[in-house]
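Re: [ENG-882] Designed sequences occasionally contain unexpected residues at chain ends

Forwarding the minimal case from QA. Structure tokens:
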């Protein structure tokens, strides 16, 4: 059964009444939270002061991961490790005995044991097999669909691993690295994610942290972390609008931030969680296969060959950042392959990927209501921004606005995460981060319509709610289906999850008052509360979807909403007309059945005929015809409604004495 909004017979529509949209006062919340964290812990037994747990910042990347911390004396944030081992490749190797190796040692197995070595696992977080099926062949390991959990699994040595578990191995290694280098236990962390990660992907990241033994204090957007690392907004009274262009190994997002007096407010965000430097590598591999007359699918089937080419493509990409051509002879099994690539050819290969990112930049500016001249600075983040062609095209798009790439793009996000960790530890109270949710959140209502409760680009944390009612007499259960997206109908959006509100006392349709409340926390993770206000029946649930957005949906969802706005509105109005017709038919049949004594046989027959005509109109797609038939049925039944009212008043006044005026 579906939810229905309350029908207003005067307006002939289903008005949706917003509860007060409560925007939490973030400054007070974070200040109070920081104060609570800074309370000194005292050991009552011996009177000694106990050290608080250190909070680390983690950049869990597609290609590489890093851990950073703020020095308690100098107050400087830095990545842990010597220069040569700060970066931990996001690679996991599973041994014969299912022992786990992480980082550079694991990466050494990519060409010799590709089927037992996992890379780019971040691209799989929060996704189903269907989401990545088109790319499955390019992975060196076996991806398997889990029918029960709708989550992609990886088959390694006869055991199934999921992306959350594998990601936790990387996080655990980073935690252990931090403990070794700072000489203290570490149990708390701030972990960064792309700004365009959806609810499912954020929850998967938090779960991975939990598996690694970490209390994940906050999931922070990578662009926000980067701006913290650059120190933008640290100066008192500084006011800036910046664009953070973040192109990593597997993900891309663009974020527009307004920074005033230490308050970082995200104005808009856009991106693609399946676009990055990995796509540069794949484009080079495809080019080499074509050059050597190798079939790409055959190359992918031979994982030793494919991984060798992929790693060589990564080297070529980096080499061409400062050179005009790349050439090398490589040995694969018993064969030698000659590989070459010119810089201009490389740039033509990656042009479609870069143009895709610039299209996202245009949408982010549009959502923020800004033109390019309003941007004071463009901050470059992610290893893929080392490519000169990327910097050139971004600079051209932003018409020569200052491009800030002075901090190591591999380290900038981790450093920002450490600064945020320091804020949450209560050591800095002069800064405030306000992020946004990238896509609208809502529920399905009668007619298959998407009723948005929290619009996209709403600042988080945030909570909002609306009231609904039932559409059928005696309805004791309600299925509440939650969706994410920008289209008018739920079929065009992505389902996050559903739950049942049960034990509702039997009442006539339209009488129950059901309050649906969405609570979106600072991590962008959704909790829902549903309450039937008359009876007090209540249920709450944290939505934990088992899949993520597909590649096409992430990229096209907003663009599709814009392109289909007129069509979607027509569909919505048709759905609303049919929903209204359904309610009118329901009540007409109910009341003519229970009060037939107030009607003649001719009147009853006429109403039934008119109901049939309205039902016939509802089988078609002509909204005007449906509305005309609703009006005709309403006009025909108006005398009946008046008789009902007179009858009800007469019965109510029976035996009552009225005083003369």
């Amino acid at each position: 059964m579906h939810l229905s909004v309350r029908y207003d017979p005067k307006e002939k529509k289903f008005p949706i009444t917003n509860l007060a949209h409560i925007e939490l006062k973030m400054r007070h919340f974070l200040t109070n939270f920081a104060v609570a964290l800074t309370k000194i812990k005292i050991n009552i037994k011996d009177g000694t002061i106990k050290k608080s747990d250190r909070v680390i910042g983690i950049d869990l990347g597609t290609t590489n991961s890093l851990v950073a911390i703020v020095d308690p004396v100098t107050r400087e944030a830095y990545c842990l490790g010597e220069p040569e081992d700060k970066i931990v490749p996001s690679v996991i190797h599973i041994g014969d005995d299912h022992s786990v190796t992480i980082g550079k040692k694991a990466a050494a197995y990519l060409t010799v044991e590709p089927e037992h070595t996992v890379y780019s696992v971040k691209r799989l977080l929060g996704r189903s097999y269907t989401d990545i099926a088109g790319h499955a062949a390019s992975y060196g390991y076996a991806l398997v669909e889990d029918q029960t959990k709708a989550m992609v699994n990886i088959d390694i040595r006869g055991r199934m691993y999921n992306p959350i578990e594998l990601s936790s191995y990387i996080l655990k290694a980073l935690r252990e690295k931090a403990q070794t280098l700072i000489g203290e236990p570490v149990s708390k962390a701030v972990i960064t994610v792309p700004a365009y990660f959806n609810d499912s992907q954020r929850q998967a990241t938090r779960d991975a942290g939990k598996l690694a033994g970490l209390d994940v204090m906050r999931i922070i957007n990578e662009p926000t972390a980067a701006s913290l690392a650059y120190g933008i907004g640290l100066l008192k009274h500084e006011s800036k609008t910046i664009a953070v262009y973040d192109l990593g190994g597997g993900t891309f997002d663009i974020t527009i931030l307004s920074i005033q007096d230490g308050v970082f407010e995200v104005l808009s965000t856009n991106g693609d969680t399946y676009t990055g430097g990995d796509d540069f590598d794949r484009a080079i591999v495809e080019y080499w296969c074509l050059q050597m007359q190798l079939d790409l699918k055959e190359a992918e089937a031979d994982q030793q060959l494919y991984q060798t080419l992929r790693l060589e493509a990564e080297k070529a990409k980096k080499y061409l950042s400062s050179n005009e051509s790349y050439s090398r002879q490589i040995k694969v099994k018993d064969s030698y392959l000659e590989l070459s690539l010119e810089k201009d050819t490389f740039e033509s290969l990656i042009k479609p990927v870069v143009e895709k990112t610039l299209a996202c930049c245009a949408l982010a500016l549009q959502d923020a209501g800004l033109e390019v001249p309003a941007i004071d600075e463009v901050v470059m983040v992610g290893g893929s921004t080392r490519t000169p062609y990327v910097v050139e095209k971004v600079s051209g798009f932003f018409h020569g606005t200052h491009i800030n790439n002075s901090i190591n793009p591999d380290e900038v996000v981790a450093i920002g995460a450490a600064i945020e960790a320091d804020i949450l530890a209560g050591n800095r109270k002069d800064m405030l981060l306000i992020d946004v949710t990238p896509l609208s959140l809502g529920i399905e209502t009668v007619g298959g319509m998407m009723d948005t409760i929290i619009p996209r680009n709403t600042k988080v944390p945030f909570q909002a709610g609306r009231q609904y009612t039932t559409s059928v007499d005696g309805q004791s259960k309600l299925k509440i289906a939650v969706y994410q997206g920008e289209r008018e109908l739920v079929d065009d959006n992505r389902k996050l999850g559903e739950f049942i509100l049960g034990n509702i006392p039997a009442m006539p349709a339209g009488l129950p008052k059901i309050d649906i409340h969405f609570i979106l926390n600072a991590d962008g993770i959704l909790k829902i509360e549903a309450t039937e206000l008359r009876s007090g029946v209540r249920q709450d649930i944290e939505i934990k979807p088992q899949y993520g957005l597909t590649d096409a949906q992430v990229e096209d969802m907003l663009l599709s909403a814009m392109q289909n706005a007129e069509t979607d509105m027509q569909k919505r109005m048709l759905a609303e007309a049919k929903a209204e017709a359904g309610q009118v038919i329901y009540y007409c049949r109910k009341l003519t059945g229970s009060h037939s004594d107030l009607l003649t046989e001719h009147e009853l027959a006429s109403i039934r005929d008119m109901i049939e005509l309205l039902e016939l109109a509802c089988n078609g797609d002509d909204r005007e015809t449906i509305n005309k038939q609703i009006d005709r049925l309403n006009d025909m039944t108006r005398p009946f409604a008046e008789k009902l009212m007179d009858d009800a008043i007469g019965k109510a006044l029976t035996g009552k004495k009225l005083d003369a005026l």
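QA comment: On inspection the terminal residues look reasonable. The first helix runs from residue 26 to 37. Proposing we downgrade this to a documentation issue.
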